[in-house]
Each structure stands twice: as C-alpha cells, then as structure tokens.
Amino acid sequence: MASAAKDVPVYGKDDSIFGGIEEQQGDKPFGKVLDAGTGRYSLRWLSTLKEKGMTELTAITADDKMLKSITPLVEKLGIQDITSLVIGNWFGPEPIFSTEHELFDTIVADYLIGAMDGFSPYKQDQMIPKLAQHLKPGGRLYIVGMEPIPDSAEGDADIVCQVARARDACLLLAGRRPYREYPLTWVKRQVDRTTGIQFLQAGEYPIRHSGNFIIRQINNGRRWLKLIKPKELENEMKNLLDDLEKQAMEATKDGNKIELSFNYVVSAVKLEEVVIEAA
C-alpha cells in the first residue's frame, strides 16, 4: 500500500512548494511544460496540471535509473499521451534538443541546480541562462531550491548541521559528490544577470526537520560506508553516525520538530521581444 501511495498524483493544495508555484502562476495556463530535471515527486504534481491548462510535458533526466523508474509512473499517472521522456545532460556532448528553438510556456527546475554537482559540476551559473533560451516570450520559469544548511546553529538545531556535514563527508570519502544547494540570494542574482528574463517573485517555505527525516539523512551517509577506505576510517564514520542518531532521537523526542533553513520558489518571466523599426 505504501508503494502504491507513491504513484498517485500530488496536488498543489497538499504541497506548499507546488502550491506556491500554482499561486504564482495564477490564472495563466501552464501550456507546454518542461520539467528540466525530473523526478518521481515532481511528475506526480505535474500530472495534475492538465486541469490547469498543461497541453504537453517534456521531462528530462540525466540518470538512467531515474528514467527506468519514471517510465511506468507516467502511465500510472495517465499522462503518457502528452508526455515525452528525455535522457540527457544539459552540459553533455550531445544537445538535449535537436533544435535550439524548442520553446516552452512553462519551465520547472525542481532542485535541479542543487543536484548539478553530481552531473555537471561548476556549471551551475550557466543553468538559468540555458533554460531561459527555451522559454517563449511571456513564459514562466520556476526555480525550486533549498537554502543551504548552515555550518552550525544554536541549540537543538545544531544536530541538523552536524548530520548534514557527516552525510556529505561519507559521500566524499566514498568518492561521490554530494548535492550542493545554493542560497536564494544567489539564484535571484543569476536571474537578474540573465538577459531576456525578469524576476517576478520569491516564496519561502520553512523546513521543520522531524526525527525520521534527520535519520534518513544519517542513513544516506550509511549507504556509502562500505566504500570508505581504510577500514579504520569506515568504522570511525560508522561510530559518528551512530552517535548522531542518538542525539537526533533525543532532540526530536515527543514529536519535536526542528525548524532550520527553508525551501524556496523563484519565478521569472521571459520578456516580450521588442522589434525596433528602422527610421
């Protein structure tokens, strides 16, 4: 039953971030939509936008495993008739689209910039200009991200910071690249510097970390322990994660949630092209 629940649509009224996008969109139809870095959760929400004027959906992933995961999901969600799934890297040797003139009414970049370090490191500053090239005049770009977890925090919130550091350390020691989130101010600067689009607004959505959520981050680190060498270092990291789990359970006992950081949605619009007539 739990697995089946992950295959059902997610409506904006039940998710603050997607609801925020719908609120910023207002009565404007979503039209032809690009999910620039797709995943199961974003697809579950996008499937509901047929009711809000979505006519076509192109969903892109650079991960073969993700493509295999979402292919049957598209059918379960009943959007296979309007959906194209694309495997590709925005900064790979082959272009995503056969023509640079592939344009969309709405582009959603759902935690895409934060995930880029694993696929296209050091290209994050080029992502928004690249997406803007594929917006129709008057089209909307929505950038979803998370304010980075700080290095330290006061009181119980510091356990969230310690867990984030330990999780990322496990990935790095295992030879992997962790996510690298960028702050809201950075995204707004990139939008302001991108020719042809204009910043519209930004919404912030506070994160309240439950004990289960924090332990999932710890387990994320544990996944990579067997790849850490030498064995003594693996054992030290294991002991650190075990200790952090005890601290997290204590800080979140009785259902206590720790508020730290926030998710955000930044929206921008593609400016109408101005034709200057010769005198």
Instruction: Give the total of beta strands.
Output: 7
Strand content is 15-25%
Secondary-structure-derived class? alpha/beta
Order of helices and strands: HHEHEHEEHHEHHEHHE
For the record, give the distance between the C-alpha atoms at the N and C termini, rounded to a whole number.
69 Å
Helix count, DSSP H or I runs of 4 or more residues:
10
Task: Please provide a brief summary of the model.
Helix 7 runs parallel beside helix 9 and helix 7 runs antiparallel to helix 10. It is built from ten helices and seven strands.
Provide a descriptive summary of the structure in words:
It contains ten helices and seven strands. The chain is α/β, with parallel strands linked by helices and 279 residues long. The termini are far apart. The longest helix has 21 residues, at 231-251. The radius of gyration is 20 Å and the shape is globular. The protein has helices at 2-5, 16-25, 40-46, 64-76, 112-115, 124-132, 158-173, 184-193, 211-222, 231-251, and strands at residues 31-35, 54-61, 83-87, 104-110, 135-146, 197-209, 258-270.
